[in-house]
Amino acid sequence: MDQDLSPQPDQGLIEPGAPALDLDRDGFEAVPLVTPPAPPSPARKTTAKARAVAELVVTVAVAGIFALLIQAFLVKPYKIPSGSMIPTLMIGQRILVDRLATHPTLGEVVVFHPPKGALVGADGVCGNAHQGYGHRQPCDRDSGGPSSQTYVKRVVGLPGDHLKIIDGYVYLNGKRESFGYHPRADAHINGFVACSPAEASYCNFPQTITVPKGYYYMMGNNRGVSDDSRYWGPVPQSSIIGTAFFTYWPLGRIGTL
Predict the structure, then answer these.
(1) Residue among 91, 114, 108 at smallest CA distance from 222
(2) Domain 80-256, what fold?
(3) In the beta sheet, which residues pair with residue 152?
(4) If DSSP codes are grouped into helix, strand and coil, which group holds residue 168?
(5) How far apart (Å, rounded) are the C-alpha atoms in residues 222 and 1?
């Protein structure tokens, strides 16, 4: 039988599965038309916008929750309502309080709940009837347990310290304090009232007391007008809210405490 010698396509030159070239009549490759993608439907646009809004709402909500948790357990802002801490803190000044720092050291400024005796009368009530206002000893016993009020003062005595007060100065374990009270340097500051030797009922408690275990002695820097532990006693550690560490308003007084 005669063998078919007509040219056969070279199968070895065509990759398996490769698309065949589409040639036009002149032998040139035909370029396929590219169909542009369909524009997103209005429904798809609406869904994307809703998703973006939902993400924003969730982000703001989470940030708000974190802010509340920080304020509740870590850092809380306070506004100074009185002049008892002049010149360190002025009326209306704003501070940040570390709520984890409830065991302050000597000289630190703290926020706390005063005893209920602090809210009785003009000068408060001491737990010891023979101490405090009008007596020779500062008060060493609180009265009535903690109140719901919030005070800010400086720690001038730690648990176990021996102290007395002369002309507004705290004598701690036999040595006069070197922090918080500087009547000569601060005399020109508006609102500052220095203690006077003649004001025995407010500024002079020459008989020594001992700060009870677990308690802190609190006094304002503005000793001539401050309502503090001299009259209503030391503050238990359980009543301390936290330690002030920063002031952020007004801007002219921004800084650490």
Answers:
(1) 91
(2) Umud Fragment, subunit A (2.10.109)
(3) 111
(4) coil
(5) 128
pLDDT string in tens for the chain (257-residue length): 443 444 444 443 334 444 444 444 455 455 555 566 666 666 666 787 887 787 777 667 666 665 666 666 699 999 999 999 999 999 999 999 999 999 999 999 999 999 999 999 888 999 999 999 999 999 999 998 999 999 999 999 999 999 999 999 999 999 999 988 999 999 999 999 998 876 778 899 999 999 999 999 999 999 999 999 999 999 999 999 999 999 999 999 999 99
**Separation between Cα atoms, residue 9 and residue 143, nearest integer Å:** 111
User: How many residues can be counted in the chain?
Assistant: 257
Instruction: Write down the pTM of the prediction.
Output: 0.75
What are the structure tokens assigned to 162, written together? Answer: 């021996």
Q: Where are the alpha helices (DSSP H) in the chain?
A: 42-73, 183-186, 200-203, 229-232
Residue 133 phi/psi, 5° resolution?
-55, 130
